[in-house]
Amino acid sequence: MISAILLILASTVLSTPAPGRKTMAPSAHHSNPVGAAYFMTNDPSGNYIVSATIAGDGNLALYEAIYAGGVGASGVMANPGIDPLFSQGSVKVSESRGFVAAVNAGSNSVAVFRIDHANPGRLSMIGSPVSSGGDFPQSLAINKEGSRVCVVNGGKTNGVSCFKYDDKKGLIPLKNTIRSLGLNQTTPPSGPANTPSHVIFSPNEQQLIVSVKMPPSGFLAMWDISSDGALSTKSHSFVGGALPFSLLNVPGKDAIIATDPSVGYQIFDFKSKSVSATAIPGQGAICWSVFSQKTDNFYLVDVGASIISEVHLGRSLNGTIVKQYSLGVDQPLDTDIAALQHNEYIYSLAANVTGITALAVNGQGRAQIHQRLELAGPAKEAGLPLHRGNLQGMATYVRKW
Ligand SMILES: *[C@@H]1O[C@H](CO)[C@@H](O)[C@H](O)[C@H]1NC(C)=O
Ligand SMILES: *[C@@H]1O[C@H](CO)[C@@H](O)[C@H](O)[C@H]1NC(C)=O
Ligand SMILES: *[C@@H]1O[C@H](CO)[C@@H](O)[C@H](O)[C@H]1NC(C)=O
User: Fold this and answer.
1) Mean pLDDT in the chain?
2) pTM, full prediction
3) Which of 43, 144, 182, 277 lies most in the core, judged by the most C-beta atoms within 10 Å?
4) CA pair distance 284, 238, nearest whole angstrom
5) CA dihedral of 373, 377, 126, 98, whole degrees rounded to 10
6) Whose alpha carbon is nearest atom 7 of ligand 3?
7) Is the confidence at residue 89, as pLDDT, over 80?
8) Cα(161) to centroid(ligand 3), Å
9) Residue 81: nearest ligand to its CA?
10) Ligand 2 center from residue 183 Cα (angstroms)
C-alpha cells in the first residue's frame, strides 16, 4: 500500500515539468528522434526556446519550450511585421559539443543549453545567461570545436564580444573581445538598415566577420583573432553591397556569399578584393541562406517573394539559379539545413503563418516541400505566449551514428 503510494508520488514528480518548461503537442512526440530543430519565441514577456524533434524521415514534431532566462525584443521598423531582430543566427547549435546558444535580445544576454543526446528535444540550461557585452544581441557564431561563442549587438552599445564555452559553467567572457562597431543607433535599434545581421568565423577561424547593412555602402567588419581568443582592437572593413545580410563561407574558396535584400546576393572575393552583385529576378527580400553538402548548392531564402532560390557557384564564383521553390504564404525567415542518413532537410521559420516549412533537398534542383508544422495551436494549448511578429531563429542538431 505504502509502496504503491510512493510509486504514484514518484511518477507524479517525474512527469511534472520543471518550472520554465512547457510540454508541447505530447500526443505527437517521436519515439526515436535522430535530431531536433530549435527556434525562439523572442517574446517580450519571456523568451522561450522551442524544440521540435526530427525523425529519420525528416519530419518534425514539437517537443517542448524552455525558458531562456530573459526577454525578447523587437527592432523599430517602418512597417512592423515579422523578423524583429534583422538577423541570421540568433539561435545556434554546436554539433561537436552538443549545445544550443540563443540571444535574449531584450535582456542583453546570451543563454546556453545542453542537448540531451538520447532525446535532442530535451534541453537544460547551463549556468545562467551572461551579458552580451552590449545592447540588443542579434546573432551568434560558434567555432567548429564548440569551445568559443561570439555575439554581435546592434543597439546603442553595438559591436561584438566572445565567450569560452564550458560544459558545466556555460559561457565565460573572454578578455579583450568587446569591440565596437561604432554605429549610431538606439536600443532597440531602428532597422533593418544601419544594423548588423550576422556574425561568422572565417574558415580558418582567425577572423571574426560581421555583416552591416548600411545603404548605399554596406560592409563586412572583420577582426583578427589571436590564439587566446582576443580580438584585434581595430576592425577592417570590406565595403560592398547595400544590405549584406547572411554570410556563408564558400567552400574551397577565399570568398563569402552574402544575401542582400536590395538585389539578391553579393560575392565578397578576398582573393581579388572585389565585390560583385548578382540580381535575382523578382526577388523581394533575400535575407537568409544555407549551404547543402549533398547538392553543393546554396539555398537563398526570400521572405518578400516567399521563394527559396537554389544557386550554384561556378569555379570562377559565377552563379547560376538552379531552381526556385515557391513557399506560398509561408514567407520563410531563419533557416537551417540538417543532413540525415539518407537525405538533407531544410527547415524555415514561417513566422507570419506561425509555422515551420520543411523541404526535402533530394538532389540538385529537386527540393520539395516535405512538411508544414503548425505552431499556434500547440503553443496555445501549452500556455506558451507566441506571436508571429516576434518569432526568430532556426538551428538544427543531428545525432551522429
Ligand atoms: C502576414 O500575414 C498577414 C495576414 O495574416 C498579411 O496581411 C501580411 O501581409 C503578411 N506579411 C507580413 C510581412 O506581415
Ligand atoms: C545619430 O543619429 C541621430 C538620429 O538619426 C542624429 O540626430 C545624430 O546627429 C547622429 N549622430 C552622429 C554622430 O552622427
Ligand atoms: C559559370 O558557371 C557555369 C556552371 O555553374 C559554367 O558552366 C560556366 O562556364 C561558368 N562561366 C564562367 C565564365 O566561368
Assistant:
1) 95
2) 0.94
3) 43
4) 25
5) -10
6) 314
7) yes
8) 40
9) 1
10) 10
